[in-house]
Amino acid sequence: MSVQEYLEKHLLSRKIEEAVNAAVRAKAPDPVLFIAGHMRRAAPAVITRVQARQILDGHGAPAVEVELHTNKAVHRASAAGAGAPEGAAADSAGDSGRRKILARSVADAVRVINDKVSEALVGMDPQQQAQIDQAIMDLDKARHKAELGANAMLAVSIAACKAGAAEKEVPLYKHIADLVGKSATTLPVPAITVINGGKHAGNGLPIQEIMILPVGAKNYEEAMQMGSETYHHLKDIILEKYGAESCNIGDHGGFAPNISSISEGLDLVIAAIERAGYNGRIKLAIDVAATDFCFGKKYDLEFKSTKKSGQNFKTADDMIEIYSQLCSEYPLVSIEQPFDKDDWEHSKKLTTLELCQVAGDDLLMSDPERIKRAVNEYTCNALVLKVNQVGTVTEAIEVVKQAKDAHWGVMVSHRSGDTEDSFIADLAVGAAAGQIKAGAPCRGECLTKYNQLLRIEEELGCEGVYAGENWRTASAS
């Protein structure tokens, strides 16, 4: 096609005239820049290429990063890996072997994205998120997206979402709210990790995390200030009580003092809250990650100890008694994954007691079918949304709607060893989730999410509403 034919096909003469007239009407101080910007917006964006590479996540493990090119700009996204590879080969490989298996998996995903995915998306409009995500899903028909990998699919989907927001010239959270079909300005309550245990720390604490929720803050900025101050007071208390060696941190940035009792950990956090002056304004939450210490039908609270007393091997009913006592003694408002991933019976028993929010993580796996079952059986009352378990932005939005329709709480969550991509911060606002879990006020991959929410709140100004006491019932208007 000649230049003349191209100009005639795309009516560029008329568009240039319109741009000049617009510059005159706007009394543009620099007409050339104004006209250039006007012409750039006049041309529709299309995807021209998708390029992937291997990067390192917060654990130094391989992860996928994607650059989605349009005829106007380049948009980058990354997604945390789904965790350690599974299977007999992985189980017997050791840490270095598992890392190599994961690296090969990421390398395979990079090749597929650079070849098949890029080819499938070229020419598509980045504003058409559902169509893009469907095209990605059509390339991986395997169960649980095992062929391409949910994290690789998600990186492409997020990059496309960022490109769509840029083409509309709106913030990412606003674009996500449009995809949800509502107008959302709700800032989530951060579930801030302060103590790590379980498989995420080298101490004797069986549960994975103790978190604080600053529900009494007047806005998100104050919530982060309250959380950060409490975190640092906690460090001082641990230093005073256990010594400097106990101030090391776990995988999510929480402190990992050498404790083995859940109550002892909660007592430390309560002391830190009181010392910070926020008594009554901060609630507690725990992520039990009980699947990690479930053996048969019992739970070994000393699973990390080399000197077992034999007194801490609990039945599921015993665990319910423990949780009930904790809820009565502490301002504990949320328990995540209190039982094994397939123990629907006892999760339902605990939920029906209505002691607190019971959040399904391994139980649900952000899977629509498992969520549907949990809703019908009242097995839990909150979703822990890990977007790389889902695979695409469109599917993530659908499971949020599914949870919201059931009047559940929704906690948008990072992954262990996350990347520095801050997408879930925009997702939490755009989907009016009300809760976000991104680790401690420490470590770059955690802070990038919390800091993005500070920017969003500043941008929203008086329109922004902090979920606060409505952290479980936040909704989009």
TrEMBL record:
Superkingdom as given in the UniProt entry: Eukaryota
Cofactor note: Mg(2+) is required for catalysis and for stabilizing the dimer.
Pfam families: Enolase_C, Enolase_N
Gene3D superfamilies the UniProt entry points to: Enolase-like C-terminal domain, Enolase-like, N-terminal domain
Domain Enolase C-terminal TIM barrel: 184-474
Protein name listed in UniProt: phosphopyruvate hydratase
Source organism (scientific name): Urochloa decumbens
Chain segments annotated as coiled-coil in the UniProt record: none
Positions contributing to Mg(2+) binding: 287, 336, 361
Entries under InterPro entries matching the protein: Enolase, Enolase-like_C_sf, Enolase-like_N, Enolase_C, Enolase_CS, Enolase_N
Domain Enolase N-terminal per the UniProt entry, residue ranges: 47-176
Enzyme class at the top of the EC tree: lyase
Required cofactor names: Mg(2+)
